Amino acid sequence: MLAVLPLLAVLSLPLRSGAAAASHHNCNAPLVSSLPHSSFQSSSQSSVGYAAHNAKLNRRDGAGGWSPMVTDQEPWLQVDLREQMEVTAVSTQGRYDSWDWVSGFLLLYSDSGRAWKQYRQEDGVGRIVGNVNSEAVVQSKLSHPVRTRFLRFVPLDWNPSGWMGLRVEVYGCSYKSYVADFDGRSSLLYRFNQKSMSTVKDVISLRFKSHQTEGVLLHGEGQRGDYITLELHRGRLDLYLNLDDGRVRLGSRRVAVTVGSLLDDQHWHSVHMERFNRQVNLTVDAQTSSFQTRGDGHSLDVDYELSFGGIPLPGKPGTFLRRNFHGCMENLYYNGINVVDLAKRRKPQIHSGNVTFSCSQPQLVSCTFLSSSSSFLSLPPPPPASGGFSARFQLRTWNPDGLLLSLQLHPGPQTLELQVSGGRLLLGLHGSGRHRSEATTGHRVSDGLWHSVRLDTRNLHISLTVDGEPSSNIELWEPVESRGNFFFGGCPSMNCHAQIPSFQGCMQLIFINGQPMNLSLVQQGLLGNYNELQLDTCSIKDRCLPNLCEHSARCSQTWTSFSCDCSGTGYSGATCHNSIYESSCEAYKLSGSSSGFYFIDPDGSGPLGPTQVYCNMTEKKVWTVLSHNSSAPVTVQSSSLQKPHVMRLNYSASAEQLRAIVSGSEQCQQEVVYSCRKSRLFNTRDGSPLSWWLDRDGERRSYWGGFLPGVQQCSCSLEENCVDMNYFCNCDADTDAWANDTGVLSYKDHLPVSQVVVGDTNRTGSMAVYSVGPLRCYGDKSIWNAASFYQESSYLYFPTLQAELASDISFYFKTSAPSGVFLENQGLKDFIRVELSSPSAVTFSFDVGNGPAVLAVKSHLPLNDRQWHYVRAERNVKEASLQVDQLPLRFLQAPADGHLRLRLSSQLFVGGTASQQRGFLGSRMTPGVSSGCPGYCSGSSSLCHNRGRCLEKSNGYVCDCSQSAYGGTTCNQEVSVSFDRESSVTYTFQEPFSVMQNRSSQASSVSTDSRAREDVAFSFVTSQRPAMLLTVSTFSQQYIAVILARNGSLQIWYHLQTDRSPDVFSPALNNLADGRLHRIRIHRVGKNLYIQVSPESCMLKYTLSSDAELILIRSLTLGKVTRMENLNEEVLQAASKGFIGCLSSVQFNHVAPLKAALTNRGSSLITIRGPLVQSNCGALAESTSHTLQGETHTITQKLPKFMEIVQKNIKNAHDVFKNCLKLQNFVQNCLEHGRN
Fold first, then answer.
1. CB 928 within 8 A of CB 789
2. Res 1216: pLDDT
3. By three-state DSSP, how is residue 1025 classified?
């Protein structure tokens, strides 16, 4: 069997994980076995023998465990540990000798037994795996310890052939707790022994809990401007810190760092801050942020005191007014000092203002509405004290829409509905017929914070108040009263007036007619009714913390999902993982581009980001050129070793990007020219350098040519043509005549030059003139590194793939084998694998803890045909995708609350598996693997151009140009046609289809990541204006039009939503109807539109008003349009004028309509009107240019001469080379390493 992988590259951008849980070697004692019966409670019990106190591990008391009643809607088992304990693990067991066990459960914890919080693992998963039989004990170690008194086990799944049965044990230990209670007016003052405290290192740790979103936890400041403040703001923790920065005024403080979210949930949160000099690490729960402080100082100078819980003197100079903290703090340490313990013992350095030393238990009990389609809480209203009705409650949610309250009114029929609409509250009163009254609030409530809502009837109006702001009112014609139950969060379908989604979020403090609603009675079935409701807890989760959007993209969320806004990042995809730019100039050349300025992304989907370079493609080699700030020659005089001339070179790319470009290139060089008159490079007596340059790492270098490092010589010495052979450099002859030492630096590890130092121009008559050329690199080491596998037992293996949160894999392969594994990496349970599963199918499978997920792409033609085929697989926290050649892209949506992290531990196997079975056949080679690949199509010499596909033949190769807009034997022959006013070419698509590839059936409707995309490229020459160049129309009345306006400027029209005005963009305001050849490229991804006018210009980015896809494309027309009903007047005028001139190499996605018109004139897909003559646009443009030159000498002398007759290449973002060539060298480095 012969199987070949020419390229395999894997890039991963795992995000930083939170701090690991502390190791507790002795915190694993059983805590439940000795508890009394009174420590156990449950929602219900089947009978006395199934009571909660029988649920101790390995016990056979009663019926051998706990089981709830069959009618229990929300079953739970609760354990009271009698005091605060640190819990590190739990164990479960089924009911003894039965068919009753729990296979999955949630774990809730609480200090009071009233307000509960759900335990979640590191990646946010709440479900804990339970039992598979009644006797085996399953222990689940908690990824982070929980300090709590009460635990509640909530069964999710159980034995389908039996019922729920549970026995439990909890493991952990006691811990010492020092608690202080702050009432919002109190504080603790820690006073120093001296006037001022100056520290270069600070360590502050504490735990806190609160139901308030605002409050100062810590504050200190000094007279010279230093300050430190730690405060809650909008449920997050802000740290203000300044060290001796006189530019910052205390009245205008800026947040140095913000950490955490939803910290007002009445549960404990841990804070740990470490500062050493200017370096600060701030950790809240499991999230850590590191940063450098402002200012020039390294010490924090605080005067007199530190205050905890607030700022005691708001009028103190320099302070700013903030709310004091209202809640509890525990184990508060400042630089090793237990502040709460000192306060309890009334030590003189602590002043405690109104602070108590026990934490009052909160009484705020929440409920969570889980479903957007079926959740509701129905409550009977108590009689009002007077006429009318009232309701008030607090809510928190992320969803912009949802029904909050619905009730029937008397006299009827009237329905009052309060909903969240577009993130704001909307109150609607529906009467008979179409009568409707509305009132809205301008306050956004879908921000994840608690908001207070009040609804009242008084004086013939219904008033709506949010957070105490001025009310909005609905006027009434007559007094009204409520009739029937109040429905919160939603309602049964027969009671709903309108189809509004149910509320997903939390509510608490529900009052009806002034009376509080007891949710405990609801849970016991003694009050009202409910559906899809979780009581005693608010299960809100911040899905944007940590931000799983890559490359600094903005994260937004709903209750069940998050989405990423990739605008302005240079990346696309569900998590902004994929770069929209090529990785190198070589990649642009292979995708059909010509010389010009381009953005390249040297590490593809990695963290570096794109940078602009010039790509010189006029030579056989493709050169990447990076300029710097000193391109002109520099004259130096009066410099010495004591006061040398220093020039720092700043490049158009960052140091990290430069390093990536250089390391990924085959060769780099930089020319240095040094002209001298009595200015030496080396001292003639001892050979020490008088001038030198610094490399990219800032190291001094004194060689001035292509020599290896350490050889202090110039190029003339290598070439044996120095003016004086007694010296190694021309300038060292030290003559009064001008001399020159020019060299090309080519040692990659030292490039580029970062600084030039000249130190010998201080003598009479001394002078030097030097210049440093741009950095120039050619070759892309990631292109066509081939590996050949000759045996099924052959493979390559590398270190473990680092792909916890995101990874992408792309490669080409060719084989005659019917199946084989391309790549595999395994963990304890997780794995990732890409394989040829059958002669016509490629499969991408993985498991991150949610069960195996499989994506497969099947081809109607065999894939084991010994021709190259392209594969790209990607997996991130939102979805997975698989692409094979030009077949439809397959997607699989990730579960909303599933495991996120792919945890791998074994080596990465390429071309085989760990078991060496079904091998396709970092890093070592096994027998049967060799570098390179036999065949004509394996090199990087681009035998086929412009997206042409190289096909191997027994005695050579042929180029398949069917996917290219060019023709000829190597797909480099321009396809051009001359049009007159009546000419047109219409390409009718064979069947209505969407440009956007269909998603998998698991795709979520809430995802905002649009797959809509178009890629258009063409060249034209004309002197006509206005003119119609190209139109695309759909069966749904959408269109795209590219026209020249009356003034000759280019206009691109996108009409994606028929109920809105079209988007119009003018990327070129100058007159393009100038008889010259112009090349247009248009690329759209969702709302982002990229346009390039001529290869020399930059790609311009625009934003569309919609990311809608083109639905059911009807046709594409070049030239005159005879029939389109919905065109704008300006477009219609251009359409009627048609096009007079030459069109060349037209490409729309994977269709080349102009080429199809010339080669398939009899096809039913092609309609030709008017005369159509094959032409040569480049020659026509050159002829026009000569004519203009003869008429207007003074103008054309300033115009650039055309360097190419035909623009040979075409850019298409769907080209199979693009994604492959983005990736870094992978196989080649390992093969080289394997030889060592």
1. yes
2. 27
3. coil
Amino acid 4: pLDDT? 37
Q: What is the rounded CA–CA span in Å between residue 859 and residue 691?
A: 64
Query: What confidence category does residue 795 fall into, taking pLDDT thresholds of 50, 70 and 90?
Result: confident
Enumerate residues 6+ apart whose C-beta is below 8 A from 695: 701, 749, 750, 751, 753, 754
What is the value of pTM for the model shown?
Answer: 0.76
Instruction: Render the burial of 1211-1230: b for 16+ CB within 10 Å, e for the rest.
Output: bbbbbbbbbbbbbbbbbbeb
Do 1030 and 1058 touch, CB atoms closer than 8 A? no
Cα–Cα dist 699/693, whole Å: 8
Query: What CA–CA distances, in Å, run from 934 to 251, 866, 956, 999?
Result: 72, 11, 12, 37
**pLDDT (tens digit per residue) in 966-999:** 888 788 788 899 999 889 999 988 554 333 333 3
Q: Write out 257-290 in H/E/C secondary structure.
A: EEECCCCCCCCCEEEEEEEECCEEEEEECCEEEE
C-alpha span between 1074 and 1196 (Å, rounded): 12
Alpha helices in 316-371 (DSSP H): 339-344
Q: Are 734 and 721 in contact (CB under 8 A)?
A: no
Cα within 13 Å of Cα(726), Cβ side:
5
Q: Token pair 């300033």 is at which residue?
A: 1198
* The length of the chain, given as a count of residues: 1236
Please identify which residue in the block is written with the tokens 């199509």.
Answer: 937
Residue 218 — left, alpha, or beta (φ > 0 → left; ψ -120 to 50 → alpha)? beta
Whether 1193 contacts 1016, CB under 8 Å: no
Q: How many Cβ atoms from other residues are within 10 Å of residue 617's Cβ? A: 19
Which one-letter amino acid corresponds to residue 508? Q
Tell me the one-letter amino acid at 1014: E
User: Please, how many CA atoms are within 13 Å of residue 39, restricted to the half-sphere of its CB?
Assistant: 20
Cis amide leading into 411 (omega within 30):
yes
Widest pairwise Cα distance in the chain: 114
Rg (CA), the chain: 36
The amino acid present at 790, given as its one-letter code, is: Y
Distance CA 166, CA 1163 (A): 72
First to last CA, the chain: 27
Q: CA-CA distance, 964 to 971, in Å (whole number)?
A: 7
Which residues make Cβ contacts (< 8 Å) with residue 1094, sequence separation at least 6? Answer: 596, 1078, 1079
- The CA distance from 302 to 196, in Å, is 6
Strands (E), 101-221: 102-110, 117-118, 128-129, 138-158, 167-174, 179-183, 187-199, 201-209, 215-221
Q: Buried (b) or exposed (e) across 398-431, using 16+ Cβ within 10 A? A: bbebbbbbbbbbeeeebbbbbbbbeebbbbbbbe
- State the burial class of residue 184 (Cβ atoms within 10 Å of its Cβ: 0-12, 13-18, 19+): middle
Rounded to an integer, what distance in angstroms lies between the CA atom of residue 582 and that of residue 601? 6
Tokens of 916: 């060496």
Query: Which pair of structure tokens corresponds to residue 1?
Result: 């069997």
Residue 166 and residue 106: Cα distance in Å, rounded? Answer: 13
pLDDT digits 0-9 by tens, 248-267: 444 445 667 899 999 999 89
Q: Which of 10, 355, 136, 5 is nearest to 1219 (CA)?
A: 10
**How would you class 47 by CB atoms within 10 Å of its CB: exposed for 0-12, middle for 13-18, buried for 19 or more?**
exposed
**What is the full DSSP assignment across 853-882?**
EEEEEE-SS-S-SSS-EEEEEEE-SSEEEE
Torsion over CA: 526, 527, 528, 531 (sign): negative
Do residues 549 and 428 make contact, with C-beta atoms less than 8 angstroms apart? no
Token duo for residue 1180: 């026509």
β-sheet bridge partners, residue 157: 104
Q: Name the residue among 131, 151, 124 with its Cα closest to residue 41.
A: 151
Q: Which of 162-176, 483-497, 1058-1072, 1172-1186 has the lowest mean pLDDT?
A: 1172-1186
CA 1011 to chain centre: 16
